[in-house]
Amino acid sequence: MGKKKTETAPFSFWSWVIASIVLRLILIYFPKNLNLASRPEVSTPLTSFRRLAEGYWLKQSSMSPYAGSMYHGSPLLLSLLGPLTVKRIEGQPNHLLYSLVSVIADVVSAMLLRATGKSLQLTYLRSLESLDLVKQIRFSEILSSGDVAALIYLWNPFTIVACVGLSTSPIENMAVILCLYGACSRRVPLAAFGWVIATHLSLYPAILIIPVIFLLGCGPDAPPRKLFLQTNQQEKVLNPSKLPPAFSWRPIVHFVFWALLWSVYVLVLCGVSLRQFGGLLEMFKSTYGFILTVEDLSPNIGVLWYFFAEVFDFFRDFFLIVFHVNILFMILPLAIRLHHHPCFLAFVYVAIFSMLKSYPSVGDSALYLGLLEMQFSFFLFCGYVGVSLLSPVMHNLWIWRGTGNANFYFATAMVYACLQIILVVESLPLGTMEFPSNRLMAVSSASELCLPPFAVFLPLTIERDPVDGRQTFLERDAFQYRGRARGMHVILPVKCKWEVVMEMIGMGMD
């Protein structure tokens, strides 16, 4: 029976992958791509296909691609994707080649997520081996969390909409995931390349350098050494080989070197591309300057456009500083709290700058939702569905029918921002290391436990009862599923059948 499941699992995974590709191709063949390219929730001034086509036309006409404040993306995208905006295949939908590039980017991102999940799972298994728990999992039936994360990313409606809507978000998401994959697999040049490209395309992924440093220095979701010290306390003989490796600066130095090398290479290419149109200074002003000054106040799924449309010009610079520094203020506290879980820290950072960036889109949400298991509460699920349905309606009432105003559309943007905040707050217990309660939980019979894919990999502090020899572990070192105390579900970092059941000792909470 076990062999049968093992054989059918890969076939099932690739069947879902192929089905997701077929769905995208079907939607691409709909007339005008369902007009998704014109939706403000999908296309922003930085990711719009139409603006990319306009910038390429200006460049082909021997004018600066940034003339007229139409295009604000990377000049590298103009060189790579610009020709696809004008090429046509007779009898095929317009921009079919560009759409195929987006489909390929989504599939590559999903495969990188899958490989990253497997890398994290292997790291966790090594941690269990250090805790002498290999015998408990040797015959366990393990389902790769990377497969689940990849399928979640491919079948996320936001991912599909961003792909079919001719947005450049799939390219940006692929660069971010490539950076995380390179860091988890200790491929330093690849991690540096992904980080440089992601930062070059949208600036905000620059803060991901902190989880990347933790991943390279400590390893993927490395548990603190004190847990291993507690585990070996009763043995009274500490085996150094079982301890996790200490923080290493050598891969960090390599990462800095490769990041500088890739940065120089990218800047040289941009300078060559724009040598007749103002050079790098013009690029910095029209891309990063455009992001930081929020010049375009066209409606989008974010909240900054409405705020800066209403604020007095005298206070504009002050609030620009406040909004951008707000992201920086969260970096250090989260890094201190979640430094043992750099992958989860990366998810939180991505979610934060997706909420607070100048020109957000649903493609940004597709990225961080792919890094976390979609076990939403019913409230969050209904909220996301409601916003997805009401946002086009409110925009239509305001812009086209004239029966509403900007407050209608801004209300959906506010709800969307609040849902993202709730999602981050609800997911934080998965990334916290310790809990205040120190009660023991005894292990006696069978249960099936699972871990949210790609989120947190945390070992347990195992102790042995001196009376009956049963193994126990500290509750504060286990997972506390959604923060529930009574009737708690303990989530182990591997999805498998454990011949154990959890018995609460001392159910009364402080």
UniProtKB/TrEMBL annotation:
What is one GO biological process annotated to this record? attachment of GPI anchor to protein
Q: In which pathway does it act?
A: Glycolipid biosynthesis; glycosylphosphatidylinositol-anchor biosynthesis
Topology versus the membrane: Multi-pass membrane protein
Is Cytoplasm among the key words of this record? no
Q: What are the record keywords, sorted?
A: Endoplasmic reticulum, GPI-anchor biosynthesis, Membrane, Transmembrane, Transmembrane helix
Q: Which GO terms describe its cellular component?
A: GPI-anchor transamidase complex
- Just give the chief location class: endoplasmic reticulum
- Keyword Transmembrane helix attached: yes
TM annotation in the entry: 12-30, 158-181, 193-216, 252-274, 286-308, 314-336, 343-360, 408-428, 440-462
Where found? Endoplasmic reticulum membrane
What family does the Swiss-Prot or TrEMBL record give for this protein? Answer: Belongs to the PIGU family.
Identification of the protein by name: GPI transamidase subunit PIG-U
Q: What species does this protein belong to? A: Corchorus capsularis
